[in-house]
Amino acid sequence: MVIIMLKTRIIPILLLKGSSVVKTINFENSRVVGDAVTNVKVFSTRMADEMVIVDIEANQFGRINFPLIKRLASQCVMPITIGGGVSSLEDAEQLFRSGADKVLINSHFYINPLLLSQIAKIYGNQSVVFSLDVKRINGNYIAVKNSGTELTEYSAIDAAVLAVEKGAGEIILNSIDNDGLMKGYDLELISSIASSVNVPVVAAGGCGSKEDCVLAIKSGASAVSAGSVFHWVGESIISLKEFMQSKGIEVRLL
């Protein structure tokens, strides 16, 4: 029997606000990083394995900026996941037509969990990503929605398990408490979710160093995503990969 070892992925996350990329702290106080098209072009030359783009205003305003998404996707040379305001199968279909390889669902999962099933039935589970945003409340991990402003009735584990049951082929796990602080991922949260589902879990929220990436993978994440460490620290994707490779983690270097 041949065992195929999957490479660990490094995934930059770009948060859109209008046509700009911003970075948040605890999902608040967004700070402009730069022009969205320019950022996509830059990361497309830096050996990122995939890219995630989330329009953080789309749900608030009830519309997706499809022309901008199409323009960004045309500049991206790696697989791209698009999220923000996806509320229907029609939204997902238009995102795929605009160049998305995967669609990211968050708030509308809690309104209509079958939305994941509808998309997965047509495009496959590998094209459906669940964005699990989590806050720690009185020692318990609670799933939240609407950019972290609303608690749901689900624990983080229950939300993850249900999302996979309904068709999600991957989970991006966001620690709101750690977001933008660059003090490390929530390793306990990563471990609890990764051990509860049988799909890849992408760690997000808190990366501030190469060591943080290694710890996240050792805690059960299949991939790591980040924003601040690239925008503010100046860490490069290749340096992260070389460090992780030196620690025995298989990454794509060519």
Structural write-up:
This protein is an alpha/beta fold and about 250 residues long. It contains eleven helices and twelve strands. The chain has helices at about 35-45, 60, 65-75, 90-95, 105-110, 115-125, 155-165, 185-195, 210-220, 230, 235-245, and strands at about 10-15, 20-25, 30-35, 50-55, 80-85, 100-105, 130-135, 140-145, 150-155, 170-175, 200-205, 225. Strands 1-4-5-6-7-10-11-12 form an eight-stranded parallel β-barrel, surrounded by seven helices. Helix 9 packs across helix 11 (about 235-245). The protein is globular, with a radius of gyration of 17 Å. Residues about 1-5 have low confidence and may be disordered.
Question: Which secondary structure elements does this structure contain, and how are they paired or packed?
Answer:
Blueprint: E1 9-17, E2 20-25, E3 28-35, H1 36-43, E4 51-55, H2 58-61, H3 66-74, E5 80-83, H4 89-97, E6 102-105, H5 107-111, H6 114-123, E7 128-137, E8 140-145, E9 150-155, H7 156-166, E10 170-175, H8 187-194, E11 201-204, H9 210-218, E12 223-226, H10 228-231, H11 237-246
Helix pairs in contact: 9-11
Sum this structure up briefly.
The protein is an alpha/beta fold and 254 residues long.
Anisotropy-based shape: globular
From the N-terminal CA to the C-terminal CA, the straight-line distance is 26 Å
Oligomer: single chain
Mean pLDDT: 93
Largest sheet: 8 strands, parallel, barrel
In DSSP terms (H or I, runs of 4 or more residues), the helix count works out at 11
Question: Strand sequence of the main sheet, in spatial order?
Answer: 1-4-5-6-7-10-11-12
How do the SSEs run, as a string of H and E? EEEHEHHEHEHHEEEHEHEHEHH
Query: Which secondary-structure class do the elements indicate?
Result: alpha/beta
Q: Helix fraction? A: 25-40%
Q: What is the C-alpha radius of gyration, as a whole number of Å?
A: 17 Å
Low-confidence stretches: 1-5
Strand element count: 12
Q: Indicate the proportion of strand residues.
A: 25-35%
